Amino acid sequence: MNAAENRHAVVWLLLAQLLAILPLVAVLPLWIIAVWVASAWWYWRIISAGWSFPIGAVKGLLALAAIAGVYFSFASLFAIEAMVAILVLAVILKLLELKTERDHWLVLMLSYFVVACNLLFSQQIIDVLLSLLQVAALLVAQQTMNRDKTAVTTMLRSVGLMALQSLPLMLLLFVIFPRIGPLWTMPLPGGQGKVGMSDSLEFGDIAKLSQSGELAFRVRFDGELPDLASLYWRGLVLDEFDGRRWSRNTWSARNKMSQAALSESFVSYTVTLESALHQWFYVLPLGKIDRDDVYYSAQHQWLSKKPINGRVEYSAKSNFDQPLMDDSGGQRQNLQLGSRSDNSQARALAAQWQEEFSDPRGRVSAAIAFYKATPFVYTLTPPLLGQNNVDEFLFNTQQGYCEHFAGSFVYLMRAAGVPARIVVGYHGGEFNKRDGYLLVHQSDAHAWAEVWYEDEGWVRVDPTATVAPSRIRLGAEALLSRQSGYLQDSPLSLRRFEWATRLRYFVDNMNYAWARWVLNFDSNIQNNFLRGVLGEISPQRMLIAVMLVGGLPLAIVAFFSLRLPTRQSEDLAARYYLASCRALARRGVPRLAGETPEDFLRRVMLEHPVWYEWLAVQTRLFSECSYSLAGGENYQRSLRKLKTYRRPRKWLDKSAIKALEGE
Amino acid sequence: MDIFAQVIQEISKVVLGKDRQVRQALCCLLARGHLLIEDVPGVGKTTLSQAFAKVTGLDYQRMQFTSDLLPSDILGVSIFDRNSNAFHFHAGPVFTQFLLVDEINRASPKTQSALLEAMAEKQVTIEGETRILPAPFFVMATQNPWFQSGTFPLPESQLDRFLMRISLGYPDELSERQLLAGGDPRAIIGQLRALLSAEKIITLQAMVDKVEIRDSVISYVQRLIAFTRQDSHYAFGLSTRAALALIQAAKAWAMLEGREYVLPDDIQFLLEPVAAHRLKPAADNQNDGPDLIRRLLSQVPVVV
Question: What is the pTM of this model?
């Protein structure tokens, strides 16, 4: 088929191609759409107005211009977006040399890759539904290659049928196909646009984070939901301080007194982390994670052995009452004050406490009392701080967010000789009543302090609680919802409306289920699942599973479709006659669908005379019932005989026929 | 020997080895249809029609269609008679019982459609006055399958007016030898007996209507036409008129076979003459009429 002759197929090709490319405008530059419009128009002129295909030099120039365009848009050719852009441009420009049927197929097949590329950037249900639509359009476009003037509904029906037929195979592959780890890890997408905790903290970082309505993780508790105010999702311990910036101690010895110490009374829960770009997990203290690829550091934090890429699910157990002991002897380090700032006023105040109280507990309560006594303002938009940020915050601006309180508190404690450190994580969460799980958003990000007592280990102190007690009880949302800036550019601001909240929970439920059951099906879960089903994972068992899941349905389908049609006829005469024919077919003498009974009889007489006489009787009876007798007693008698003699007999005894004929 | 066998035997005296076509022509007449014979010149189209006219005992008119033929040349014209001071209608050749039209595709579309209208309505309207054609009215038309210059191929809608389209083909070796050895067939035509008459034919046509066709056969016909409408090999499906024609022809055929009921075999036998000229292959399909019919016969189940 020459592509130009089948306009129908061309229109569908262009439509399907546009549909495949369009959702990518979110990540690709808009000029790619302009390139598509120009190429599609050019191609249309080629086939409708007799324009010529571009010569090689023009095509070469176009390709170079496209690559240059990608380079200028992304400043690189090797970012994932740039690579996708190059693929998309190749698919588009291929239109300008679409001469043969083979080219047509090539563009269609490449468009499937474009559809798959959409899923690189997001895999929510909505994206999957969209890609189903795109695949349907491509399948229709594929069908138009081979048939013309067919209604779209007919084609959609066969597309649906094909999709249904491929469904079992898809499910089978989903379950058994090995999950190959990434060969290289590529930051997706872009890096800097992603919201989330980083492994260092400066004043203002968490305030920025709290303006995002994005989900950080979901938690499903096995038992009852604990009090929201007590949920401190401990993520990262920041114990290095250079005077301005808190950062993580990269020397993290593995904690020897690890999980084994976890006592009996614990809560267990499952956390589903949204795609994260870090290496640590969030647990309630003191927690234990059931996974092989994680380790426990001396700071009581859970770290992944390799960078986390994409969504992660883990189950954990926690005992809130167990102390965070530390026998590594590294607490000296938690006294350093850094060289990048001076903060003399704060040091002086701390020195005063150190003189006044010999016991660390006394110094801590003095500091808490100080925070209570000072009229601090809790705000999302604190003023910028200068060189000596702690001093400026404590004695000058007195406006801050949780990291200001935690940071200044830890600074004061260290200056007063009490080992202290910052912990960042999330606090509280939002309970989804519909499905019974906890949603923790980026806006729940929180920073608090931990101080070291020789006898008790690391004890949590949340100075923010002294300033705005309601924030601790209700969570960031309740406190901040009246302030400007909080979630100001997020669709979550719709939370004023009851129905909007319910809808949001519903959508979130769907996404959670999707993430839980589909996206998180990693090699860990896969192995567990297969082991659970098969007992052990061995080639033989896998083979048996594949045979059972894939082979058995195929065999059943084959059995039913390869058999002669067995649908029972409404017409009794036809039913008995067809039964006779089937019985004869099983003996190697099949009747063709388009063969009339008389024709069949003639053929049997010539080719298989042994059945002839019996079939002659059956044919005569059937002919009477179906074509000549309109009913009545004769009809009933013929029908009865037809039924009685419907099994093939080798008529060797002529008298038997005579007897039958005479009945 | 029944009357049909005698008729066929009589015609076979001049048209040798063409029993099947003769029977089909007779079937067409009994089913009140019209016959189109498509074949190369010189295989006996005219001989068949003349013998047929003679044996059936019908009034016979023969017309040679040419490109300058006018509708009035077929239908007739009113001429002013000065003596009686009134118009008098001079009936055209169409006012006959058996009309042979040679090379129908050489006349202009206007003339063709005048004839075809007469065939469908069995009446003609001239100058506002409707005139009933004689009964029975049977048209046998011939056309050359190769469209030469100066011909106007009949469009599908007009082909549909013919109940059957058959071709004679070259005679087999034995028949041809007898033909060559025998005398001028036209001389023999004069000696043929008229075995039927207009009255007998009308009676037989009425008997055709009484031939029984059962639901199982009707649903087979429905499956056939439904298949042509769904399958992508056909440019368009068979019409309801085609299905009616098929059933009517099958009834006549059953009567010719001496049966009072229709078998699917009758439908299958008549499918090509009745349906082939009404089917057109889809654009990208090179199959022609016979292939399309074979496809129908093999794909559509007879008994369900």
Answer: 0.47
